Amino acid sequence: MKGLFQKGILPLAIATAFPGVVLAQDKVEAEVGFDLVSNYIWRGQDLGNISVQPSLAIGYKGLSLSAWGSVGFEKTDTKELDLTLGYEAGGFSVSVTDYWFNGGPGYFHYGSHNTNHTFEAQVGYDFGLLAFNWYTNFAGNVGYKSDGKKAYASYMSVSAPFKLGGLNWVATVGATPWENDFYAGGGNSEYSKAMVNGFAVCEVGITVEKELQITRSWSLPVFAQLVWNPATEGAHFVAGLSF
Q: Which of 58, 186, 230, 233 is deepest in the core (most CB within 10 A)?
């Protein structure tokens, strides 16, 4: 559940916060890669343990189409495939993402009550020192309120990159603004709740990246991420490699 090839200095952290892509050159460009992570934490939610997360994107003049996936090492782990169509101009970004998980209706089931897809719209602006993004589920699994009505679960985040100790860091705070059952902790969290009852801070995180120089021409990015979820009393420490 993360965007691809994000603008900024920390690919993993900014993938969480900034869905705009950087493939904005005057020619068609494509990128491919994958992350290996010790835990799959998304917007403060625990979505899995050790996971491989491949990515692919193609872009032209700010318009991009990207694919992102996640699969764990256990046969019972949920598999995920996300497709994102996005546009970026200057600091402004807008995108639509189709999230899909296995374990329920097949991929080509799009019925309102028979689908494992979640469709999300995003709009945001990167001011340089600070970036703000708003996300809303508008179809598929939109999230529900305690009375059974559709919540159109939404999420807002503020992120700030900075340098400290010779390393690149990103600080992130994210919250869901109203009642919903979508941002309730994740299925793998022992602190999962059935419902977030109103405005709730779901993520307070800090991510740091370091380049490990393997050869003169190739370095391997490694990253660490601390995430707290005040709404569910969860805490996570994630490490990963980007290839």
A: 186
Contact predicate 200/41, CB 8 Å: no
**Site of tokens 């994740």:** 186
Given a contact cutoff of 8 angstroms between Cβ atoms, the answer to whether 94 and 123 are in contact is yes
DSSP-based three-state secondary structure for 215: coil
Number of Cβ within a 10 Å radius of residue 158: 14
Write the CB contacts of 211 (distance below 8 Å, at least 6 apart in sequence). Answer: 219, 220, 221, 222
For the chain, give the mean pLDDT. Answer: 89
- Its CATH class, for the domain covering 11-242, is mainly beta
On whether the CB atoms of residues 5 and 73 are closer than 8 A, the answer is: no
223 is written with which tokens? 């990253």
Q: What is the pTM of this model?
A: 0.88
Confidence of residue 25 (pLDDT cuts 50, 70, 90): low
Report the chain's C-alpha Rg in angstroms: 17
Retrieve residue 138's tokens: 């508008």
